[in-house]
Structure formats: C-alpha cells, structure tokens
C-alpha cells in the first residue's frame, strides 16, 4: 500500500505544481504533498533496510523422538553426520511405531539458500527422553497498520532456525 501512497502523492504533487494557477493554493498543496511524499519514501526505505514496523519473534517447538535402532532391540541410538561447522543430519524415528528411522535436517534444493540461517546441534544430557527443540526466529509486523502499509508478497521472513537434539546419556551416538 505504501507504493500506492507514493504514486498518489507523486500525482498530487505533479498536479499541484503544474495545473493549479493560484500561487497560494499551489504552494500549500504542493508543499504538503512533497513533505508527505518524502516521509512515505523514507518509511519505505526504513522498512526495506532495517525492517521498520516489524519485530523479531522466536517460536519454540519441542517434540519427542525415538531410537533409530530396530524396535526389537534394547539399545537406543541416534545416527549423526556432521556437515560443516554447525550442521548435522540426524537419523531417528518421529513415532515409536515407524518401521524405519528416517534422516532429518537434510537440505533440499527449495530451501538451499536458507541453510545459511539454519543450525543444528545435539546435546547429551540426563533427560529421560530424547527430544528435538526447533527455535524459529522471524520478522513479524508489529500491527495491522504496518502490515497494511508494507506487506507486498507472501514471505516467511525467517531470520534463523535452530534445531537442538537433546539425547539422553544412556543413548548411543553413531557417527557417520
């Protein structure tokens, strides 16, 4: 909507400067429209460069995970492959009734660019159950007014995604 406001103010400025004949009306209307046009442009620049009208929010989700070992064994384990400095691929079950464990946190072509903002790590602790905690930080509009002014397209505005795997100390970690 801010683009439309800038366009309308540009038209009003053009009309007031070139079409209105009386100097007093021309000066008042063109002065007001130029000031509003400059403010609108600065608001747009502030939104694009420093996310004016937005705030960072963090959403945290935790879910239990299950062993990657066959269901009929007593050994509980997770398979981990380290990729780069802060990324891993982990193999585990999301449901205790799944036939086979699946790989998680594998990059896809669709989100290849967002890998820069995603980190995964595992922590061994004294928990009784294994869990995955996903913390997603993203930009969100502060109010409906800011969203109405600056919203242009459907984007998730994700800043970073952090995945923490909490592994109980009695689990085995298989490194690949």
Can you tell me about this structure?
The chain is α/β, with parallel strands linked by helices. The chain has 2 domains: 2-50; 55-175, no CATH class. 30% of the residues lie in helices and 35% in strands. The chain has 3 helices and 8 strands; from the N terminus they run H-H-E-E-E-E-E-E-H-E-E. It has helices at residues 2-18, 23-50, 144-150, and strands at 54-64, 77-83, 87-92, 102-104, 118-125, 131-141, 158-168, 172-175. The strands form 2 sheets. Strands 1-6-7-5 form a 4-stranded mixed β-sheet. Strands 4-3-2-8 form a 4-stranded mixed β-sheet, with no helix packed on it. Strand 2 and strand 3 (87-92) form a beta hairpin. Helix 1 runs antiparallel to helix 2. The chain is rod-shaped.
Q: Which regions contain 5 or more consecutive residues with pLDDT less than 50?
A: 110-116
Q: Write out the strand line-up for the largest beta sheet, numbering strands in chain order.
A: 1-6-7-5
The total of helices stands at 3
- Write the H/E string, N to C: HHEEEEEEHEE
Give the mean pLDDT. Answer: 84
Count of extended strands: 8
The total tally of domains equals 2
Q: What structural class should be given to the helix and strand makeup?
A: alpha/beta
Shape: rod-shaped
Major sheet characteristics: 4 strands, mixed
Helix content: 25-40%
Return Rg in Å: 27 Å
Strand content: 25-35%
Calculate the terminal CA-CA distance, rounded to whole Å: 52 Å
């Amino acid at each position: 909507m801010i683009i439309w406001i800038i366009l309308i103010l540009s038209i009003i400025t053009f009309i007031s400067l070139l079409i209105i004949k009386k100097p007093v009306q021309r000066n008042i209307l063109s002065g007001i429209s130029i000031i509003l046009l400059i403010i609108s442009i600065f608001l747009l620049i502030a939104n694009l460069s420093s996310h004016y009208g937005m705030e960072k929010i963090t959403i945290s989700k935790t879910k239990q995970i299950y062993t990657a070992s066959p269901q009929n064994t007593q050994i509980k384990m997770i398979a981990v492959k380290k990729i780069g400095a802060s990324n891993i691929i982990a193999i585990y079950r999301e449901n205790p009734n799944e036939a086979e464990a699946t790989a998680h946190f594998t990059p896809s072509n669709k989100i290849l660019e967002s890998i820069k903002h995603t980190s995964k790590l595992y922590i061994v602790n004294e928990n009784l159950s294994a869990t995955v905690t996903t913390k997603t930080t993203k930009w969100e509009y502060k109010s409906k007014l800011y969203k109405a002014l600056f919203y242009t397209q459907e984007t998730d505005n994700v800043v970073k995604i952090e995945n923490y795997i909490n592994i109980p100390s009695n689990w085995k970690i298989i490194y690949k």
